[in-house]
Structures are given as structure tokens and as C-alpha cells.
Amino acid sequence: MKGAPGSFTAGLPVLVAQSGLRAACKPEIIGLTATNSPPFQCHRESNMCKPESLSARLRAPVSALLMLLVLAGVCGTGAVHAQEHPLVGSWVINEELSDDPDEAVEAAIIEAGGRVQRKWFGREEKERYRGGPAEQELYDRITYDPILRIDYTEPEFWFGYADGYQRVFHSDGRTRSVGANDHYNSGGEDFSFAAWEGETLIVEARPRDGGFTLETYTLEENNTRLRVALEIRPENFGATIRLVRVYDRQQP
Fold first, then answer.
1. Which pTM was predicted?
2. Domains observed in the chain
3. What are phi and psi of 137, to 5 degrees?
4. What are the phi and psi torsion angles at 157 (to 5°)?
5. 201-227 pLDDT per residue, tens
6. Cis amide linkage into residue 155, ω under 30° from 0
């Protein structure tokens, strides 16, 4: 078939052999002046004028060149299509497998000696503990937002939440990382840092209110499910809020 790759590579050694034969037996082809001096004279008894000898000499380097080209193509393809980390993607909350954030907050309030007001009649309002000072927004995002988007280019992580809220931090041991949001131009800023423990990502955060969070991210179910264990301690809060959030991978 014309233009087929196999036809080209099959004819390449013959083409090179024929060209080399003409150059070897006719020095003027390669810009040399024919003389009677031994280096440039074509003797009948010399193997250089025998096609079968020249083809044998050229066939090996041509084959090696073709093999190098193939290997270069394979290696180049592998570099372009490097496998991304399984944490990368969009994750949506699985409410059935996750703890109720409001109940977790109430458990901490009771542990700290506080009292919880409940409605005896009517349905409890969902996300009733969401809100508060702007410096505590990080707590709300990791506790209530239903979608978590993760990107990772080693060693930098990017976590995206609703309303454009984002976190950028690193997993290479540095103690302080990039601030959470660009629109906080005044006052303090949230910051996070992370480290790997085996296949588990441990993230610590220092929100602007002076509290802290400890977050543990673990992949489950053949990387289709993300389990996030949270320990949250806002400043001036009497006890630590503990809950587990379970996310399912959102298909593109």
C-alpha cells in the first residue's frame, strides 16, 4: 500500500545501501576527486564494491537507528501522559455515610458544659450552626460544603469549595503555605500545611480566628470514595468538634 509505514521502513535499508554503493564506487559523488591514490581508488578485489558486503555493513546501523526512533516515541508518550494522583478530581458528599455536622457541633457544646436549644415541635433547621464571623469561614467550608475539588502538582495541593473559596498548601514539610483566598486583603489569613503518612494525607490548618483543624484524607473503595476525618477547634470554643465526612468521586 502506498504511504504505509511498513513499506517505507522495509525499503529504507535498500535505499541507503544503493546510495552508499554509488558513493563508495564513485568518489566524485561525495565531492572527492578520483585519483590513483589507494584511499580513493575502487579496486575490483576490494569488498567495498560488492553490494552484498556494503548492504550487510549498512543494515545494522539503519536497524539500530529505527529502534532508537521507536523507543524515543514510546518514552515521549509516557512522559506526556503521566498518571495523576488518585486524590485529584471532584468529590460530592455522601450524606448517608457521613456524620451530621450539626449533631457533631452539639456534641462538642455539651462536652464543653454548654446547653443545646432544641425545637420540640417542627423540624430542626439544617446547617443551623453554619455562619458566624468571617474569620471562621474555613470551619464552615470543610464541615458543610457538599462538593470538594482537589488538584495536585507535587508538592502543591489546591482545594476548591463553593463561592470561589480555595486553599493552597504544600506536602513537602514547609511550615507555612500560601494564604487561602486572594479577596482577604486585610487582616489575617487562613493557612494550611500537609504531610503524607503512607497513602494518607494529613492536613493542619490555622484559621484566622486563632483556632486549628486537623484533617485526615484517605481513599477507599478502589479510589472511588474519599473519607475525611475532621477535628475542629475554633478559638474560644470549649471542646473539639469531631466528625467524619465521606465523599463519592464525581464522574466527569
1. 0.64
2. 5-79 (no CATH), 89-249 (2.40.128.20)
3. -60, -35
4. -105, 145
5. 999 999 999 999 999 999 999 999 999
6. yes
